[in-house]
């Protein structure tokens, strides 16, 4: 079962004012910093929060509007949060059967549906257990089965893997990738793999507004907002387009290759634009190097973050990935002034 979704919502007390669409069978990931309004948006979609203005429409039916309000239990939406929220007094199969029972199914049909969905999430062997006998990953599988057994038109996921052990998350991500296929879904996540592997599109929120949106692979490889760049692990400098790059707010020109985006021409001189480059393309120098083809950024190191064999050197809004040997040889440490250098051939420029 899948349905198209349209949301326009304003919640004044929370500074929320968003609008976006989800096509039938599409998975959209909501990304953004803490406080951006992602969970508030899910609450509006689920009917847990009534906005001051706006509409929620599923398959042409208005669920929230100026003169209409469908309560949560009648919306055919299912909200799955970090906490599985299983009923402690019911067995696993009874928990899953609760979904179809709540939509009017008889006891026998509800149990058959529960057994089917437990099989779909590889949890049939857990049917007779109680929630306190489950691991975190097992409980979340059961919660997914319960949500799907209710046959929702729209599935809402609020960081479903945030509370799971790192070793468990990949298997659950693979499971979601299978069961979400062709199902209308909105997922809030802070993990780049969720956006890349589960979502068809991403909607980046910041300050209660939509900062950018588009296909996952496009937004995360050519971000136009600071958060999307950080989320994707990229450096981003905003400014206005020049013939060969981007002029930042301080007048510094970042040289790079100017591109268009799908459906849009390359930015013209003076238009808003962003320069994007990988931390691995950045070299760190104690003294400014000579030579004009390179971009040089005088910065102050704020943090050193271990990344296996590499160290991410953070400075303000930029980052460089260098070897442990380089960190030692340059005696890098927070508070040290250095120069980040990146070749123009490593910088890509897009319209903003």
Automatic annotation (TrEMBL):
Classification via SUPFAM superfamilies: MOP-like, P-loop containing nucleoside triphosphate hydrolases
Record flagged with keyword Repeat: no
Residues annotated as domain Mop: 290-351
Keyword Metal-binding on entry: no
Alphabetical UniProt keywords: ATP-binding, Molybdenum, Nucleotide-binding, Transport
Limits of the ABC transporter domain: 5-232
GO molecular function, one term: ATP binding
Database matches in PROSITE patterns: ABC_TRANSPORTER_1, ABC_TRANSPORTER_2, MOP
Pfam family for this entry, one: TOBE
Name of the protein this chain belongs to: Sulfate/molybdate ABC transporter ATP-binding protein
Source organism of this protein record: Nocardioides vastitatis
């Amino acid at each position: 079962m899948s349905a198209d979704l349209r949301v326009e919502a304003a919640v004044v007390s929370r500074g929320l004012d968003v609008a976006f669409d989800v096509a039938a069978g599409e998975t959209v990931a909501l990304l953004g910093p803490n406080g951006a309004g992602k969970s508030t948006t899910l609450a509006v979609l689920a009917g847990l929060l009534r906005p001051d203005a706006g509409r929620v429409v599923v398959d042409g039916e208005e669920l929230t509007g100026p003169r209409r309000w469908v309560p949560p239990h009648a919306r055919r939406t299912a909200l799955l949060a970090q906490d599985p929220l299983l009923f402690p007094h019911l067995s696993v199969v009874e928990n899953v059967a609760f979904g179809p029972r709540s939509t009017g199914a008889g006891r026998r049909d509800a149990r058959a549906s529960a057994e089917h969905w437990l099989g779909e999430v590889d949890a049939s062997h857990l049917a007779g257990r109680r929630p306190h006998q489950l691991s975190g990953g097992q409980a979340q599988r059961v919660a997914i089965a319960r949500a799907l057994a209710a046959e929702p038109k729209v599935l809402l996921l609020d960081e479903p893997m945030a509370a799971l052990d790192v070793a468990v998350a990949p298997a659950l991500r693979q499971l979601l990738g299978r069961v979400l296929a062709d199902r209308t879904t909105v997922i809030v996540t802070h993990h780049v793999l969720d956006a890349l592997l589960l979502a068809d599109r991403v909607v980046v929120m910041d300050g209660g507004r939509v900062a950018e949106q588009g296909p996952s692979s496009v937004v995360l490889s050519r971000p136009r907002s600071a958060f999307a760049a950080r989320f994707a692990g990229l450096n981003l400098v905003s400014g206005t387009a020049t013939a060969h790059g981007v002029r930042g707010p301080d007048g510094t020109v970042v040289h790079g290759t100017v591109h268009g985006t799908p459906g849009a021409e390359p930015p013209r001189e003076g238009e808003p634009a962003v320069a994007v480059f990988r931390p691995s393309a950045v070299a760190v120098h104690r003294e400014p190097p000579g030579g004009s083809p390179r971009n040089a950024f005088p910065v102050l190191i704020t943090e050193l973050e271990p990344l296996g064999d590499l160290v991410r050197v953070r400075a303000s809004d930029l980052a460089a990935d260098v070897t442990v040997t380089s960190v030692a040889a340059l005696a890098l440490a927070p508070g040290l002034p250095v120069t980040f250098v990146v070749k123009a051939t490593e910088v890509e420029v897009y319209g903003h």
